[in-house]
From TrEMBL:
The protein's name in its UniProt record: Uncharacterized protein
Lineage start: Eukaryota, Fungi, Dikarya, Basidiomycota, Agaricomycotina
Source organism of this protein record: Pterulicium gracile
Biased composition (Acidic residues): 250-272
Compositional bias (Polar residues): 9-21
Biased composition (Low complexity): 208-239
Region (Disordered) location: 1-23, 202-275
Superkingdom of origin: Eukaryota
Length: 356
């Protein structure tokens, strides 16, 4: 069985009168939402990998995803786990630590992107090494996802809903089902101490329509509101209206000014693309199909994700899913496809860092 405490403490939790769970009875998922010590996820990884069924099986790997590297390391240092401090240099614990892959996703969008691109390397050639796993994982741990929805920025919180949280969890289970092997399905564990304090609206609030005739309506109309359409009025005569929002800090040293451009703006410049990218929504199903069929390598050049494909993959991609991409791009305005090079416009690409 897996434990959240070091071995010297775990022995007191197991009673001889309680029979051990058989492999068929072991839970496939686990939710821990109460208070727990910071090193609990680490001990869960070690005890899971020490299970004889996992130790002798083909899936000897654990993926641990947490929002912030700095916050988690500070919590571990403040807790000062004696067992980890005394045994971290031991050969057995070092071998178990090498089988744990820690990734950091600072926002919900980063997490959705990470879950979409996580892959298992079936050959010796690796692509996107930081998100390519050597073996099929037997456990995925998601640490404190409520922090994505408990931000101080009212704009970010107002755009989230309970459906956003459930969609994130559903995406996690979908990723686990894809990464698990046929002989050893991947289990899911959720550590969320702030889940009882999480309060999200069931639906997203509708933005109130401005009384100013020059303000954009963003496609929303109140019932009973009157509006007039002037077909003879030139669109170039009216200025482009922009709604300024507070800066959104993406990293410690990077601040991106978010400008939401009115839908009437037809500018195709790079500046407009970056501004429009602040409202990008990732469609994971299509992204997975696009990456699987046409990806050759991915670069992170600042503000945009450049996806390049070879000519053969591009032809296959055009024949199979171009119509679907065109419909999706026309609906959301988030991807521009031109020749064998596609540009997925995003505000900023996640920096996925593996723990050393």
């Amino acid at each position: 069985m897996a434990f959240l405490f070091p071995p010297q403490h775990a022995s007191s939790l197991v009673h001889e009168s309680n029979p051990s769970l058989s492999p068929a009875d072991k839970p496939k998922s686990l939710l821990i939402y109460g208070p727990y010590h910071p090193s609990a996820p680490i001990h869960l990884c070690f005890s899971h990998l020490s299970d004889p069924a996992i130790l002798n099986g083909p899936s000897q790997s654990v993926v641990f995803i947490t929002p912030s590297k700095e916050a988690y390391l500070e919590a571990l240092a403040a807790y000062d786990d004696d067992y980890l401090y005394s045994n971290s240099v031991c050969g057995r614990l070092s071998r178990l630590s090498a089988a744990v892959k820690i990734l950091y996703a600072p926002t919900a969008s980063h997490l959705h992107f990470l879950l979409a691109v996580l892959r298992v390397s079936e050959t010796a050639t690796k692509r996107m090494e930081k998100v390519t796993l050597d073996v099929h994982p037997s456990l995925i741990i998601l640490h404190e996802p409520s922090r994505y929805f408990l931000k101080e920025d009212p704009i970010e919180v107002g755009q989230q809903s309970m459906a956003s949280y459930l969609s994130l969890v559903a995406h996690l289970f979908s990723c686990a089902a894809r990464l698990g092997s046929s002989s050893a399905p991947c289990q899911v564990t959720l550590f969320d101490s702030e889940l009882p304090q999480l309060k999200l609206p069931i639906i997203k609030p509708v933005e109130p329509e401005s009384t100013s005739p020059s303000s954009p309506t963003n496609g929303r109309r109140r019932s009973g509101s009157s509006s007039s359409i002037h077909p003879n009025r030139s669109s170039s005569a009216s200025p482009v209206h922009r709604r300024q929002a507070p800066p959104q800090t993406m990293d410690d040293d990077t601040t991106v000014q978010r400008d939401d451009i009115d839908e009437d703006d037809d500018g195709d410049g790079e500046e407009e693309e970056i501004r429009r990218a602040s409202k990008t929504v990732l469609v994971t199903g299509l992204a997975e199909k696009f990456f699987a069929r046409s990806i050759e390598f991915i670069k992170y050049p600042g503000q945009r994700l450049i996806v390049r494909s070879n000519e053969a993959a591009w032809k296959s991609y055009r024949n199979d899913v171009q119509d679907e991409v065109s419909e999706w791009a026309e609906k959301l305005g988030e991807m521009r496809i031109s020749g064998p090079e596609g540009v997925l416009k995003r505000g900023r690409i996640p920096e996925l860092v593996q723990s050393q």
